[in-house]
Design a protein that fits this description.
64% helix; Microcin C ABC transporter permease YejB; MetI-like fold; mainly alpha; transmembrane helix; 2 strands; 17 helices
């Protein structure tokens, strides 16, 4: 088992590098980089993507012959300083130069850094967990993620726990009463919930319960009220639950179907096995048979997959849910970073969450072994 874990740990390195190489390569062909974003903002064009695609007319008559569409009308020295600041170029000065390196110094010049070199510099920093600073917010990427984390923690933690607490007992009940009216109508209900788009259900909740056209029971936005600091401990807990009720329900509604049906099918497979018939023949109660013998084997797949599922919803962030309920979490952060071409945020979060996802894959395998010692990954080759 130790050799298997070591192999999996070593495989993290090439896998993570492959993920970063693919995404870094894609950004080299996407129009409208961070320099164009800054130029478009300063010239009032709104978004550099409009200039790149030809959608805007602002600044067309200012002209530039260098093909740098997003930089029309801005001083070349300013653009060069931006390229150096964002890590796309470096300042090279003549030998013997004693002043402060600057793009405006006659003895210095700008030298563009090749994409391959920029990639290796980025990866070296990431291996030391130095994720840099956001281009547009003047804050470290780690601090920015920590700032947005409470929303994702709320949605991910409560959605996962509620899904497991409801789906597992429901799946067991459906397996015991397989083919009965209860099994039929509950299957219909969870499939309908799975089929309803999350954003549509979220809007429905807002209209019905957040002051839309019917009842104003829950707040429209945020995780806490304005008077949060003045509330007692119990008041803070109730205020927190009051604010997260609708977003959590909206993000959880579609997660019941897969987990419930997986639990049901796992129990059905185990109930038909010989050891269950033997246990019943010995006179054991149905509860003892189900939870003393069947549960451990049937829940192997469900429980072992919990770490990976928890991390995926914990760090994933839901852009649509966050937007509808005016929550500022990782979903909004990732979307804005992609639109603004904020590469430190994009690649820093991709590296960090990718690393966590790969590690959680190993933990999932260890969970299999812990739940069922008969499984031996160490005997596998490759």
């Amino acid at each position: 088992m130790g050799a298997y874990i070591l192999r999996r740990l070593l495989l993290i390195i090439p896998t993570l590098i492959g993920i970063m190489v693919i995404n870094f390569s894609l950004t080299q062909f996407v129009p409208g980089g961070p320099i164009e974003q800054v130029a478009a903002r300063l010239e009032g064009d709104g978004d550099a993507l409009e200039s790149v695609s030809g959608g805007g007319d602002a600044g067309v008559d200012q002209g530039r012959d260098d093909g740098y569409i997003g930089a029309r009308g801005l001083p070349p020295e300013f653009l060069a300083a931006l390229e150096v600041q964002f890590g796309f170029a470096r300042i090279v000065c003549d030998e013997g130069f004693t002043g402060t390196p600057s793009v405006t110094a006659p003895e210095c010049r700008k030298e563009m850094i090749p994409a391959t070199e920029r990639f290796f510099i980025m990866m070296w920093n990431y291996m030391r967990f130095d994720f840099g600073e956001s281009y547009f917010r003047s804050i470290d990427v780690v601090d920015l993620v920590i700032e947005k984390m409470p929303v994702s923690i709320t949605l991910g933690l409560w959605s996962t726990l509620i899904a497991y607490l409801i789906s597992i007992p429901l799946g067991i009940r459906k397996a015991v009463r397989d083919g009965t009216p209860f099994d039929t109508w509950t299957s219909g209900a969870i499939i309908v919930g799975y089929a309803i788009p999350g954003f549509l259900f979220a809007i429905l909740l807002l209209v019905l319960f957040a002051g839309g056209s019917y009842w104003k029971i829950f707040p429209l936005r945020g995780l806490t009220s304005d008077n949060w600091e003045q509330l007692s401990l119990m008041g803070k807990a109730l205020d927190y639950l009051w604010h997260i009720a609708l977003p959590v329900i909206a993000s959880t509604i579609s997660s019941f179907a897969t987990l419930t049906l997986l639990t049901k099918n796992s129990f059905l497979d185990e109930i038909k096995k010989q050891y269950v018939m033997t246990a019943r023949a010995k006179g054991l109660s149905e509860g003892r048979v189900l939870y003393g013998h069947v549960f451990r084997n049937a829940m192997l797949i469900v429980i072992a997959g919990f770490p990976a599922l928890f991390v995926s919803v914990f760090f994933g962030g839901s852009l649509i849910i966050e937007t509808i309920f005016s929550l500022d979490g990782l979903g909004q952060l990732g979307f804005r970073a992609a639109v603004e071409r904020d590469y430190p945020v994009i690649f820093g979060t991709l590296f960090f969450f990718g690393l966590i996802g790969l590690v959680m894959g190993i933990i999932s395998d260890l969970m299999y072994v812990w739940i069922d010692p008969r499984i031996d990954f160490g005997s596998r080759r490759g």
